[in-house]
């Protein structure tokens, strides 16, 4: 109860605001995390589409498809960071199958697999693209 001349919030009003904020947070955070995971997966799809079209350009200029490091260099290192034979972009790791293809393999075709490991909050996610340009979801 307020006396004349006092301003501010009472303890009850503050507790009520904290409870309301707690309820809103409990409802909103799972949706926010789901949106973040979906945006990462969409980013991986877009990267695979870019890789596929860049592979066609590389094939027309060099007579074979590119390895990931060559592909990334052709895109001014915009696809991600090279780590050994893999390319890392965000939570996704892009790998060629086989990991170190020969020039003869790359004249025939290519397969790039993008994978994101799972944890307690999110499931694993694996997608791939090949020389046909078709992006396939492997898991889940």
Description:
The chain has helices at residues 11-62, 68-74, 103-108, and strands spanning 81-83, 86-89, 92-96, 111-116, 125-130, 135-139. Strand 1 (81-83) and strand 2 form a beta hairpin. It has 140 residues and is of the alpha+beta class. Helix content is 46%, strand content 21%. The chain is elongated and about 85 Å long. The protein has a six-stranded antiparallel beta sheet with strand order 1-2-3-4-5-6, with helices on one face. The termini are far apart. It contains three helices and six strands.
Task: Give the fraction of residues assigned to helices.
Answer: 40-55%
Strand order of the largest sheet: 1-2-3-4-5-6
The description of the largest β-sheet is:
6 strands, antiparallel
Task: Indicate the radius of gyration in whole angstroms.
Answer: 24 Å
**Average pLDDT score:** 93
Q: Quick one: overall form?
A: elongated
- How much beta, percentage-wise? 15-25%
Summarize the structure.
With 140 residues, this protein is an alpha+beta fold.
Secondary structure layout:
Elements: H1 11-62, H2 68-74, E1 81-83, E2 86-89, E3 92-96, H3 103-108, E4 111-116, E5 125-130, E6 135-139
Antiparallel strand pairs: 1-2, 2-3, 3-4, 4-5, 5-6
